[in-house]
Write a structure and sequence with these properties.
This protein has 18 helices and no strands. It is mainly α. Helix 8 packs antiparallel against helix 9 and helix 10 packs across helix 13. InterPro entries: TPR-like_helical_dom_sf, TPR_rpt.
């Protein structure tokens, strides 16, 4: 799903001029045209040793697929999953199908993904249950279908221009999750009244739908679809319901790996872990109330955005030392046109979480509005150079290319260098069109 920027519309272009004098080091001179030598290495100031793994260079297993996915090597994911399918047992085959279909969606091969889903048929068919393969899975009951595959199946029609069918499928999936959770709770109550020990499992045919996490995943998927349809208030409603369950937990980011554009620079090559997996600030940025606040900014309702951010901060031990909370304050200040204050908040966020792409990108937009385009460019370049693989975010790259157009006589050469860098280390679904974009935030996580 295409990323939606929700930090207030601050288009690149207007307000850019010569830098004002500040108590900061002077910005570097515009980079010269890179006509000779290795342009990418000249830009980075170092040799680029990392290379994207291939389907042949990783373990021939789900672990290998996970490594490829972490690097955005989606073409390789599709190839490896297909290679492993002929010898896979039924449960593994479904997991491989999910990875392959997800990869096809990531690289926008929507028709092929739809064909593969159609070949799977009814995901509730008895043949996809453990009971149908009792000799392989003795004692196991219920469906073998991963919940993520159900989400993928529900979302897929949107990518082939049938958004209403995707919406109906997701609404039905969310309703099934809610029904399963209610049925499980009724079973718990009946067991308690009867004095039975333990908690009974949900009915076998609901095993993959009974967890609350699945309900949260369905709500996030619905919110993503509503945003794609520009039905922002409906997206807010879904996220508010999710926030009532987990107001400060980035568990809203239950991933099925569908296309959703920029993720704020959280992609990392294996074996490095995503910063979002460990950094409290990154979790805060993905929390439902954080997303609610940014959607209100998208709609221009600053008071509602401030209220949502305030509710989120009330759940934190210390908002002052949380990078996500400081970044949200910066986005709100941008909405008010207070670019100096916003830049200060983004600086604070980066001091707490140096990998926060939301902060570095929006700080650059603030510098642009303050007529400090040299500082804006330098900040983005330094961020990319610090970790070319992990920090290569589509919105950041697009904004950097647009700033070169405003400031550099060698803009065309610099754009080509960025394109080469993307080709070397960017994910296969990286948006390489390098179009100017508004202020960037983390996209709503796909469910």
């Amino acid at each position: 799903m295409e990323a939606v920027t929700t930090g207030g519309a601050h288009p690149l272009g207007g307000g850019a001029g010569d830098e004002a004098v500040r108590a900061l080091p002077p910005p570097p001179a515009p980079a010269p045209a890179l006509a000779t030598g290795n342009a990418v290495e000249l830009f980075l100031g170092q040799a680029l040793h990392w290379r994207k793994p291939t389907d042949a260079s990783v373990a021939q297993s789900l672990d290998g697929i996970a490594e490829l996915a972490s690097c955005g090597a989606w073409h390789a994911v599709a190839k490896l999953a297909e290679r492993l399918l002929p010898t896979a047992h039924p449960e593994l085959a479904l997991a491989l199908r999910q990875h392959r279909i997800t990869a096809l969606l990531r690289v926008r091969n929507y028709r092929a993904a739809s064909d593969e889903l159609a070949a799977l048929g009814d995901l509730d068919a008895p043949a996809l249950s453990y009971e149908a393969h009792a000799e392989l899975y003795p004692g196991r009951h219920g469906t073998m279908v991963p919940f993520g595959l159900r989400v993928v199946q529900s979302q897929a029609p949107h990518f082939v221009n049938d958004s209403p069918r995707a919406l109906n499928a997701l609404l039905l999936l969310a309703a099934r999750c809610a029904d399963a959770a209610r049925e499980h709770e009724r079973e718990r109550e009946r067991a308690a009244r009867a004095g039975a020990a333990g908690v009974p499992p949900p009915p076998p045919h609901l095993n993959s739908l009974a967890l609350e996490a699945n309900g949260a995943a369905a709500r996030v998927a619905l919110a993503n679809l509503y945003i794609a349809r520009r039905e922002y208030q409906l997206a807010v409603s879904e996220l508010e319901a999710l926030a009532a369950f987990a107001p400060s937990v980035g568990g809203a980011a239950h991933e099925a790996g569908l296309p959703d554009g920029a993720r704020g620079g959280e992609r990392r090559p294996a074996p490095r872990a995503p910063s979002g997996a460990t950094a409290p600030g990154s979790r805060t940025l993905d929390a439902p109330l954080s997303l609610v606040g940014r959607l209100h900014l998208q709609m221009g309702d600053l008071a509602a955005a401030e209220e949502a951010f305030g509710r989120l901060e009330a759940t934190l031990a210390s908002a002052e030392t949380d990078a996500g909370a400081r970044a949200n304050r910066g986005l709100l200040a941008m909405g008010h046109g207070e670019y100096e204050r916003a830049s200060t908040e983004f600086d604070a966020a980066l001091a707490l979480e140096p990998n926060c792409c939301v902060a570095v990108n929006n700080r650059a937009v603030c510098e642009l509005h303050l007529s400090h385009i040299g500082l804006a460019i330098a900040g983005l370049e330094d961020f990319v150079r610090a970790d070319p693989v992990g920090h290569l975010d589509p919105t950041l790259v697009a904004n950097l290319a647009a700033m070169y157009e405003l400031h550099s006589d060698s803009a065309a050469a610099m754009r080509r260098t960025l394109e080469r860098l993307v080709a070397l280390v960017g994910a296969d679904d990286f948006d390489v069109q390098l179009q100017p974009r508004a202020s960037a935030t983390v996209a709503l996580p796909a469910a």
